[in-house]
Amino acid sequence: MKLQYNSGTYFNWENRTIVLFDNDELNRRILSLYFRKTACRLVVETENVKVLHVVNHYRPDVVLIELSFSYQDNIELIRKVRQTNDQILIIVQTFRENEEIKKACFNAGCNYFFTKPLDFIKLMSVLDFHLNQL
């Protein structure tokens, strides 16, 4: 369900939880601003080793994972998140535009793969589509 505000259209994701794992402070701030207008619960984590605990505790609908320099650890993290819930939406975001890494992410269980800089309109549309399917 979309809500109309004077400055544009925002999404109503009340009762939805999104976990954001991103080491890039600027990206976290920008995404937090976008999500603030959606009424979702946003849980931000910056440490790979804590993400699985956060996922188990909050039972999110979506996990956004930044694929950083230690991408092998993050691919394993994708696999572990997928094992906790086969219905969870896993979105990877990265500066790495590499088909081999992209394939490894999909094989590990991610649903979408976005390269940075993020297309926020596309990201929000993908999220809205999936969150309204639940």
Can you walk me through this structure?
With 134 residues, this protein is of the alpha/beta class. The chain has one domain: Response regulator (Rossmann fold, 3-Layer(aba) Sandwich). It is 44% helix and 25% strand. The chain contains 5 helices and 7 strands; from the N terminus they run βββαβαβαβαβα. It has helices spanning 25-36, 48-58, 71-84, 99-108, 120-131, and strands at 2-5, 8-11, 17-21, 41-45, 62-66, 89-94, 112-115. Strands 4-3-5-6-7 form a 5-stranded parallel beta sheet, sandwiched between helices. Helix 4 links the parallel strand 6 (89-94) and strand 7. Helix 2 packs parallel to helix 3 (71-84) and helix 3 (71-84) runs parallel beside helix 4. The longest helix is centred in the middle third of the chain and has 14 residues, at 71-84. The radius of gyration is 14 Å and the shape is globular. Mean pLDDT is 89; it is low at 1-7.
Return the string of H and E elements.
EEEHEHEHEHEH
CATH class membership: Alpha Beta
Number of domains: 1
Q: Given the C-alpha coordinates, what overall shape results? A: globular
- Stretches where pLDDT falls below 50 for ≥5 residues? 1-7
The overall pLDDT, averaged over residues, is 89
Largest sheet: 5 strands, parallel
Report Rg.
Answer: 14 Å
**Estimated helix fraction:** 40-55%
Give the termini separation.
Answer: 12 Å
Which CATH architecture?
3-Layer(aba) Sandwich
Q: Which fold name corresponds to the CATH topology?
A: Rossmann fold
Strand content is 15-25%
Number of helices in the DSSP assignment: 5
The CATH H-level superfamily is: Response regulator
Biggest sheet, strands in spatial order? 4-3-5-6-7
Which class do the helix and strand fractions yield?
A: alpha/beta
Count of DSSP E strands? Answer: 7
